[in-house]
Each structure stands twice: as structure tokens, then as C-alpha cells.
Amino acid sequence: MSVPVTVAAAAPERLRLTEIFLSLQGESNSVGWPTVFVRLTGCPLRCQYCDTTYSFHGGDWWEIDAILDEVARLGVRHVCVTGGEPLAQKRCTILLQRLCDAGYTVSLETSGALDIGDVDPRVSRVVDVKTPGSAEVHRNRWENIALLTPHDEVKFVICSRDDYEWSRAVVAEHALPSRCDVLFSPSFGQVAPRDLAQWIVEDRLPVRFQLQLHKILWGDEPGR
């Protein structure tokens, strides 16, 4: 007599989240669009200018299906997965794929310290290059540069004139404008936006100057 075999149900795929909220995109090529932000918990870096240190620890476990439901409830087409460092959680790539499959315009904000090669090609990857002033320049994963496409963006947060000179050299060395859009942003409270804008204009540098729109509107208020 055969004995029926019980197959255990697969555990639901989960991610640890700090918050999900609706706001305006404050950076990148989609600046100004109403956007759902999915902020994952945890980051292996400690950039000295970080404005989301509250996402380093804590958070709640969410099933990916529940994340998709909440994104749908908030009712806009742009979704940004951010952190912390979202790629520090392995199932982040599953979430990104599911969001693309659902028809959203999806971006990923990543530190540039982890491999971006497994990210769905439909996602716009906004990849930081950490400057010396960030205190995490040694964490740059330079192999990511070869993976960049015109669908992606590279961001430099400039903390000083020395940072600007370093970043200008990196842009030239790796021919970054031939790969994707390059963004230069002043570190809030460390470089005057007018100064950075003037340096870019004087050098005719082929990069886009950007300010953090969300900081202008809401400061460092979480969930905005």
C-alpha cells in the first residue's frame, strides 16, 4: 500500500522594508513624476552624508505579493526601489522583475558597491560612484561600468572642489557620457549648488547638474 507524500508549500518570498510611500521623484531623469518609493532595509556602506540612516536597521518583513498590492493601491506608474542598499537583499531582483512584469516604469537606486548584472534590463539603474568625500570610495565596484546602458544613469555626490576634480577625471577616464547620462549633485550643506553649477559650466562638462527636489520641498522628513 502506497503512502501519500505531503509536499510542503514553498515559503513566500519576502523582503525587509523600511517604508513604502507615494511622493515626487526628487532626482534622476524621472524627477518630478509622482512615484511610489519602496525603501528596503539595510546597507553595508556608511557614507558620511547619508540622509536615510533610519533605513539601516529595523523594518518589517513583507511578502513580495503584498508589496505589489500596495504599489497598485497607491496608483501611479513610476516605482523606485531604494534603500539603504536594496541589492543587499537577494530577493530585490525578484521584486524588480515582478514590478516590470506588472507594467510599471521601474528605477533602482543603488550605491554602486554591489553587482548590478542580475537586475532586469527593463529597470533604469541609477548607480552611485562614491567620491573620496563620501568616505566610501573604496567600495566602488568598477566592474559595473561595463554593464551600463543608455537606459541607466550614474550619479556623483560632490562634497568639495577636490571631489569635483576627482569626479571629472573619472568621467573622462571611463567615457561615462558615451554610456549613459551622468548626474552631478552637490552634497547638501557641503557644496553650494551655485558653485557646482559654475564649475560644470566653466568646464563645459557633459554631465547633468541636479538638486534634490525632495529636500527643497520637505527637507529630511521620512516618507516624503
From TrEMBL:
Binds 1 [4Fe-4S] cluster. The cluster is coordinated with 3 cysteines and an exchangeable S-adenosyl-L-methionine. S-adenosyl-L-methionine binds at Y49, C50, D51, G84. It catalyses: 6-carboxy-5,6,7,8-tetrahydropterin + H(+) = 7-carboxy-7-carbaguanine + NH4(+). Mg(2+) binds at T52. It comes from the Bacteria. Substrate binds at L24, Q25, G26, R39, T82. Keywords: 4Fe-4S, Iron, Iron-sulfur, Lyase, Magnesium, Metal-binding, Queuosine biosynthesis, S-adenosyl-L-methionine. GO terms for biological process: tRNA queuosine(34) biosynthetic process. [4Fe-4S] cluster binds at C43, C47, C50. Residues 30-220 form the Radical SAM core domain. Belongs to the radical SAM superfamily. 7-carboxy-7-deazaguanine synthase family. Catalyzes the complex heterocyclic radical-mediated conversion of 6-carboxy-5,6,7,8-tetrahydropterin (CPH4) to 7-carboxy-7-deazaguanine (CDG), a step common to the biosynthetic pathways of all 7-deazapurine-containing compounds. Homodimer. This is 7-carboxy-7-deazaguanine synthase. It comes from Cognatilysobacter lacus. The lineage of its organism: Bacteria, Pseudomonadati, Pseudomonadota, Gammaproteobacteria, Lysobacterales. The gene is queE.
